[in-house]
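User: Can you help me understand a structure? I only have the sequence.
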Amino acid sequence: MLVTMSDDRRQHWEQVHGTKPVDGVSWWQEPDDVWLDLVEDLGLANGARVADVGCGASMLVDALVDAGRYRVVGVDIAESAIERVRDRVGEHPALRLVAADVRTLRLPEPVDAWHDRAVFHFLVSEADRAAYRDSLAACLGPGGHAVVATFAADGPESCSGLPVQRYDGEALVAALGFAPADAVRIERRVHRTPWGSEQPFTVVVVRRPSS
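Assistant: Let's start by predicting it. Here is the structure, written out as tokens:
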């Protein structure tokens, strides 16, 4: 049987999410600490579609559902992560959970917002980044916003045993395939891990042109 890079990546994240407690990973945020404001500040209409790619077992999905204004799609490569969210949130008419590789992700209808906290920085090859851009272009509707957070230029060089690509704001906007004029927000945030260390992030919000 042919083993692909996607298989290797999936096995890695199944191991992480299937064996560690939800709060035993560096990226965990307590419910009151999730960066929900990055989506809320977009001013989306009621019923807007929001995709959280690489959602893991994050509490952000819960927060988006609890907001009561969004139709949420949680996407992760690890089925074990998806099951943890499903067990916690349960069946909900505003939530769809999808086990998929973001590099090949296609959704049945476009989303109004694409949220990615700490997936893009794991794509260290240009081929993987190009595949991600294709997925983003296929899934994000005209006029939609992408909210993407990666390790900052002075952030960690690896995470969960994998190398990462670090970015400043301008470099991240360009790597996502957007023009400088498409950026509506660029900022630095510091995440405190469950064991107290600090990780600087670059956050960008870009808007896809309406036409």
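Now, to help you interpret it: The chain has a mean pLDDT of 93. The radius of gyration is 16 Å. Let me know which part you'd like to focus on.
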